[in-house]
Specification:
The chain is of the alpha+beta class and 376 residues long. It has 13 helices and twelve strands. The protein folds into three domains: 167 residues, no CATH class; 142 residues, no CATH class; 39 residues, no CATH class. The chain has a three-stranded antiparallel sheet. The protein has a three-stranded antiparallel sheet with strand order 4-5-6, covered by helices on one side. A three-stranded antiparallel sheet has the order 7-8-9, with helices on one face.
């Protein structure tokens, strides 16, 4: 029994470590099922524990663009705190001659510009710069629409769930049996059962191992088949990961999440919240995003072109976001309603972060104008 327990201990250690990644900058890790998902901002991406869950990630747009050009000042940031550029840059479209991607960054005319989050790859950015004004304006409108498609995300989730239903079921059986066996061995089940039963369980362990191997083999085979029917929309490394999962059964317990990698398109984090989050979580993320549009931080010393681009992009993004918010039943007026004073001396609050103040100052430390709190 000790050999079985040691093998299962290694198995669960590999399972726990599988899929954990450290990314260069904080992103929203989305772990969900067919209809619901949680969004968590972190540099660490953790997979879901249940075999039927999938995983995606969403980063804030690291730039703003308009018919006049592109700048690296993020607008409509959902994360708190948002990542500000170390040096504000703005390029008119006519000045962009070369765009490349290196070391996770986009470079314009040989200068590092912003993080390469996948929202606008280097080739598409250069192609956008080379269009005529009318075609470019139409393309920018198309891009804004493409970054905010919650219905498309829901359709993708349903397609992934349908194509991997058998795989998730086999993984769930494997997971459940392995968990029961682990609890039996860790809790000294042989010592708690009558001798005759304990001996019968010991004789059945090799057959159980064979059954688990068959579950693994069938699930992996079905995953290879499903891979062809789940086309990737980003850099696809699933074949290598699936080969690794074929050889490592602990990794194969998350085949649905593995097949979902690169299957979900790059969109704004709020699009994922609109598609999968509960209304309370959606409201919290909408407050942060729309609050950044209302009261942006930084930018006062940016070049005039960057300020012009950021204003135009904020107006366009805000209009589209508000349309989605109304459709989801989230009222902007309710989001930004003045909070009730949380202390006897509270007289004002920051509308961006909701922090309350007891002094007569007019602006918060970030420069946002304070507003009066509501009284009971």
């Amino acid at each position: 029994m000790n050999e079985w327990f040691s093998a299962l201990l290694v198995f669960w250690a590999l399972w726990a470590a599988d899929g954990v990644r450290l990314v260069p900058a904080a992103v929203f890790a989305i772990v969900g099922t067919r209809r619901r998902a949680t969004l968590h901002l972190s540099r660490w991406l953790f997979p879901g524990w249940w075999p039927a869950s999938w995983r995606a990630s969403a980063a804030d747009l690291p730039f703003a663009l308009s018919p006049a050009g592109i700048c690296n000042r993020p607008v409509g940031v959902a994360s708190r705190p948002g990542e500000a550029p170390w040096r504000a840059q703005a390029w008119a479209w006519a000045d962009i001659r070369d765009v490349s991607a290196r070391d996770g960054w986009l470079w314009i005319n040989g200068t590092p510009f912003c993080r390469d989050t996948g929202h606008l790859p280097a080739k598409r950015l250069l192609a956008l710069a080379q269009l005529d004004a009318a075609a470019r304006a139409e393309k920018i409108s198309w891009l804004l629409h493409r970054w905010l498609r919650p219905a498309h995300l829901r359709r993708r989730a349903r397609a992934l769930a349908g194509r991997t239903a058998l795989i998730a079921t086999l993984n769930a059986w494997f997971f459940g049996l392995a968990a029961v066996l682990s609890l039996y061995l860790a809790g000294d089940g042989a010592g708690r059962l009558p001798t005759r039963w304990a001996e019968a369980v010991a004789r059945g362990l090799p057959w159980l191992a064979l059954y688990l191997f068959l579950l693994h083999a069938v699930a992996v085979g079905a995953a290879w088949r499903a891979l062809r029917k789940l086309p990737a929309v980003a850099v696809d490394k699933r074949s290598v990961a699936l080969l690794s999962a074929t050889l490592l059964p602990p990794q194969a317990l998350r085949l649905r999440a593995l097949l979902g990698e690169a299957f979900f398109p790059t969109q704004h984090p709020l699009a994922y919240a609109l598609a999968f989050a509960r209304k309370k979580d959606l409201a919290a993320l909408a407050f942060q995003t729309l609050g950044d549009l209302r009261w942006p931080l930084g930018g006062a010393e940016d070049p005039p072109l960057a300020q012009e681009i950021a204003r135009w992009f904020g107006a366009e993004l805000g209009e589209r976001l508000r349309t989605h918010m109304r459709a989801a039943g989230v009222e902007e007026a309710a989001l930004f309603a003045a909070p009730v004073a949380d202390a006897p001396g509270s007289c004002s609050y920051c509308p961006r972060c909701r922090s309350q103040f007891v002094t007569a100052q007019t602006h918060c430390p970030h420069g946002v104008a304070l507003q009066p709190v509501a009284r009971r």
